[in-house]
Amino acid sequence: MSDDLTTPQSQGEAELAFEGALRPKSLGEFVGQSKVRGQLQLLLTAARMQDRTADHILLAGPPGLGKTTLAMIVAAESERPLRMSSGPAIQHAGDLAAVLSSLVPGEVLFIDEIHRMARSAEEMLYLAMEDFRIDIMVGKGAGATSIPLDLAPFTLVGATTRSGLLPNPLRDRFGFTAHLEFYSDGELEQVLDRAAVLLELDIDRESLAEIAGRSRGTPRIANRLLRRVRDYALVHTGRADLGAVRAALELYDVDALGLDRLDRAVMQTILTRFDGGPVGLSTLAVSVGEEAETIESVVEPFLVRIGLISRTPRGRVATPDAWRHFGMAPSSAPGTTQQALFTDRL
Length: 346
Ligand SMILES: Nc1ncnc2c1ncn2[C@@H]1O[C@H](COP(=O)(O)OP(=O)(O)OP(=O)(O)O)[C@@H](O)[C@H]1O
Ligand SMILES: [Mg+2]
Known about the structure:
InterPro entries: AAA+_ATPase, AAA_lid_4, DNA_helicase_Holl-junc_RuvB, P-loop_NTPase, RuvB-like_N, RuvB_wg_C, WH-like_DNA-bd_sf, WH_DNA-bd_sf. One of its GO terms (molecular function) is hydrolase activity. Pfam families: AAA_lid_4, RuvB_N, WHD_RuvB. DNA binds at residues 311, 316. The protein has helices spanning 12-22, 34-49, 67-77, 93-101, 119-131, 168-172, 185-198, 205-213, 219-237, 242-251, 261-273, 281-288, 292-305, 320-325, and strands at residues 57-60, 82-86, 108-112, 133-138, 145-150, 155-160, 176-179, 309-312, 315-318. It is α/β, with parallel strands linked by helices. Strands 2-3-6-1-7 form a five-stranded parallel β-sheet, with helices on one face. A two-stranded antiparallel ribbon has the order 4-5. It is globular, with a radius of gyration of 23 Å.
């Protein structure tokens, strides 16, 4: 991925430390996602009333919307210890067996990017989730035997940016799937307001609204832009006002809609190379030199949400708003790029 200010993925250690400091610690502090919050609250309260471990929870949604934060909150609210792992770290069933067999009763196990776990581990996880038991294979070939091992009851919290990639048997074993949505500008203002207090930054409402509007519906980006505005105020203007916000965001190429370089590259490609579309996902990915997965899970959901592209059975199409935002007019001779039109992977 690029290192643009508006990529929703986390960028390095400094940002991780910063995120840790700003992470809400309870459901009450968690801004927005009111539906998901209500659903989680009920599930956790019921478990607590019966003094049992909560059902397994799957958190699905684009990067930076609060999946890791919610996993930590689940553990904190249920007053249980939290173990953190991730799909890429579980490349063999043995990796998972080691984690599962060392859990203490009631522990919350967070597996980030769960769609990237090894297949063999996935199968072990089915049994573990359902019966709190795993079968450990010993030996090879005809002499191989499986030894059953009982596990302490645990709550699995899985996070994924690609819930479509999860096999059905795994998805079905979660008691609840939370689909996180992009945040409204008003909600992002609340996120920023809270962050400004924690950063001891004096900033007015108008400025917060301006940052919120350019944050791609994503708290991680909102917080990152706020940091750059803080820098700008420190170095140049002495205070974080609308002038500082506009100048800082212009300096970092964040446009009025919060589009970043990759968003713009995708839009320009659809508009100019493909005459507004329709164009298929993999053709688009090749054209902008980015992986189809990134386009599909990071770029496209946001562009669809703000109404710049729509998905049709024949591929991605630019909307009239898109032509307007980029100051272009639809080509008067549609079909001139027909030979470049593919409708793969709709
Ligand atoms: N609802 C929220 N209220 C306040 N701050 C939030 C909220 N959601 C996320 N944040 C902030 O955004 C940052 C990123 O959130 P988080 O790390 O939980 O995202 P994520 O969904 O796990 O992203 P990824 O898919 O990249 O792992 C957090 O550090 C936190 O400061
Ligand atoms: Mg995360």
